[in-house]
């Protein structure tokens, strides 16, 4: 037995000889004060664990799209996967090439699940599909294969909703749908500068607007075989952030935004979950909003990143943020605490 292994073994045996109360006290004192405050009012379950660095090497790398020999290196490429590891939407993100394409990535994963195969079979036409319509470079994409739709944001300040269903399988499709020839069914306008990020909330379904409440004639209730008609009289909400320092929340079935939240600099990441919206900006600040009434309420501002926020994720108790500063930070949602609970460096 090596000396290091002997030290680890003796240390673990010493821990086992300690009383449960001593272990709890030591564990509680070992975490940060921010975590102690965050979890002081929550039931905490303690587990005896041994931590070892069993693997220290590069992570597995999956090549989802391989550049051809005649293709130039594209540093501004925008991508988004469907979450089910079946399809990827991508665009070069340049003013010269504004075409949105799709790649089947299910075959890249050895542990492909049955539902991924089903999604692949239903959407096989996506590999041939090309979406064109934006007047400026595409800066943000959101692909949802469950509802077979795509949201795209652009330098032209607009957001487009695309119907990805195979039209050969949809009889009696209304030709009155806006721009139906290239699958764009709705255009959202509100931003005054580039749209940089989009988040579609699939966790909460909302009742569709009644025809009498629709402001524009183009927003009359769509036919039953249209994109929003397939949702059984419900709709979804999505959030967007832009270089105009604004964050908007929208409904899929209306061109008019529901709420507007403002930052001092570009909004680079958004997240929407039910009545909560989180928005991160270029300065590294993150703001948490409660969406209710005519005006959203700012619950708190979390400041810890030293560069722009690039991604946000949330569950019932925590918010996780990633930034160009190379750190992933964890925040509490259950109280007024604005300090970071912990951070993970990323090379």
- Tell me, briefly, the overall form: globular
By DSSP (H or I, 4+ residues per run), the number of helices equals 4
Radius of gyration: 24 Å
Which fold does the CATH topology of one domain refer to?
Methylamine Dehydrogenase, Chain H
Proportion of helical residues: 10-25%
Q: State the end-to-end CA separation.
A: 34 Å
The CATH C-level name of one domain is Mainly Beta
Keywords: Repeat, WD repeat
Pfam families: WD40 (PF00400)
3D architecture notes:
With 347 residues, the protein is mainly β. It has a domain at 78-306: YVTN repeat-like/Quinoprotein amine dehydrogenase (Methylamine Dehydrogenase, Chain H). Helices cover 12% and strands 34% of the residues. The chain has four helices and 19 strands. The strands form five sheets. The protein has a four-stranded antiparallel β-sheet, with no helix packed on it. It has a four-stranded antiparallel β-sheet with strand order 8-9-10-11, with no helix packed on it. A four-stranded antiparallel β-sheet has the order 12-13-14-15, with no helix packed on it. The radius of gyration is 24 Å and the shape is globular. The protein starts with a helix and ends with a strand. Residues 169-181 and 211-225 have low confidence and may be disordered. WD repeats lie at residues 131-172, 302-333. InterPro entries: SCF_subunit_WD-repeat (IPR051075), WD40/YVTN_repeat-like_dom_sf (IPR015943), WD40_PAC1 (IPR020472), WD40_repeat_CS (IPR019775), WD40_repeat_dom_sf (IPR036322), WD40_rpt (IPR001680). Keywords: Repeat, WD repeat.
